[in-house]
Specification:
single chain
């Protein structure tokens, strides 16, 4: 039985060579890992990476990290985990249609947000202000898989997955950067970059309507007419545009139509103004920012307390970096619980 396993990975690699596009990244052609490792007998290297990410602690913690609404009580609001799964679904659909490497796409998708802080981007902004040299969830996601997971050993992922994680974010700039240095080297990584914004612009809008932050009728007509009013319609139109435009010129470029590119950017800008910065949303995030700031200063001022509450130090890392690692890895509910324990008086417990 064991001997029969030896041909499975090689058979999968052969299938990739026969079926995938000439522009796809083949598992057998991976640039490898930082630390050489024996290949799995039944999984390709990108399938192996996907599983390493799926089973790591940082991935499980995404369940209780904010996407848009802070620690939502309702069961149907997105969290950072459900966002990640939606990105993976969009990216895999596109990759399969373009005959790209779906396993590589999935691995990058599942790992792209592992470095996100509790309380969404407000936690990231606070740490960026406080950490020497700044803080960004993209670099932190790579640090999670390279250093922090497995008690400091990291996940030892392939170069292509690490590159896709590092290059997935576009901030508030253009969706498709002409800068080759900030663009993923694989088309699969470039697909994830666009799948990320397709997913969050549509589902954040969906959650904002569900939470009565806005009404569907508030969306400008030029945006809703192009992209659609319902979540399923928006996803369908954006994915089909991405696939259709990327099939031009034999699928050698990942791109959107000019009209759709402008429409998505207009929707993103509208979301920033009317949802992400809405007073009803921002007031709670101001409290969360205070919480993150206080925890950071508390642990930097008291290294013993930092270790007592579960922080870790790695050789050569300044305390501020270790504290940032600790806070960035927290879920919303753990950060809230820890704040209460550190700063609020606890009821007297008699024995």
């Amino acid at each position: 039985m064991i001997g029969s396993f030896m041909d499975i990975r090689e058979s999968l690699e052969d299938s990739e060579r026969q079926f995938l596009s000439s522009h796809a990244c083949l598992s057998s052609k991976s640039s490898g890992r930082v630390y050489p490792a024996k290949k799995c007998t039944i999984r390709t290297v990108f399938q192996h990476d996907r599983d390493r990410i799926l089973h790591c602690k940082a991935f499980r913690r995404l369940k209780y990290k904010t996407q848009v609404f802070l620690s939502p009580v309702g069961d149907h609001y997105r969290t950072r985990l459900t966002h990640t799964l939606e990105v993976s679904q969009v990216a895999r659909t596109v990759s399969r249609a373009l005959r790209l490497n779906e396993d590589l796409t999935e691995a990058i998708s599942l790992g792209h947000d592992l470095g996100h802080t509790p309380f969404g981007h407000v936690g990231e902004r606070v740490l960026n202000e406080l950490v020497p040299g700044g803080f960004h969830h993209v670099q932190q996601s790579l640090r999670v898989v390279d250093v922090l997971e497995k008690e400091g050993k990291g996940l030892n992922l392939t170069y292509e997955v690490r590159d896709g994680i590092l290059k997935h974010s576009k901030g508030q700039g253009g969706l498709l950067t002409p800068d080759v240095h900030s663009r993923a080297k694989t088309l699969e990584g470039q697909v994830v970059r666009l799948a990320d914004i397709i997913a969050y612009t549509s589902h954040d809008l969906d959650d904002a309507i569900r939470g009565h932050v806005i009404e569907a009728a508030d969306i400008p007509n030029d945006i809703s007419n192009l992209i659609g009013l319902r979540h399923s319609c928006r996803i369908d139109r954006m994915i089909k545009d991405l696939i259709g435009q990327s099939m031009i010129e034999d699928g050698s470029q990942i791109r959107l139509s000019r009209e759709m590119d402008e429409g998505i950017r207009a929707l993103r800008s509208w979301l920033f103004e009317h949802v992400y910065r809405a007073e009803s949303v921002q007031s709670e995030f101001n409290k969360a920012a205070h919480l993150v700031r206080e925890l950071f200063h508390y642990f930097c001022d008291d290294p013993d307390a930092f270790l007592q509450y579960g922080g870790r130090r790695f050789p050569g890392d300044p305390l501020e970096i270790s504290v940032a690692d600790f806070i960035a890895g927290m879920t919303d509910r753990f950060a809230l619980s820890l704040y209460r324990e550190c700063f609020l008086p606890q009821p007297w417990k008699s024995i």
